[in-house]
Amino acid sequence: MPMAVGVIETQGFPAVLATADAMVKAAAVTLVYYGLAESARFVVAVRGDTGEVERAVDAGIAAGNEQSNGGQVITYYIVSNPPENVESVLPIHFTRKSEPFRVF
Known about the structure:
four-stranded antiparallel β-sheet, 32% strand
């Protein structure tokens, strides 16, 4: 069964930290990617069942926008069933670092 991917982009590090924390605490998802997008914008991606990813993204958006030190959510998206060629090109696959935390 394919796993959905949910990605949130934030302005500032405190917002992405709060976003990632809220996402993994709110739903049964695995954090698969975190990185700097550009000019103090950060991206965090999670994988899991579609319903769990939707719940995680909602919680991440709320947490990222609640930051009082200027952080905010810039954009987000959910892909319910990414094809294998997308997984092979984009950094949304499970790695050796994320595999031990994979939620089944």
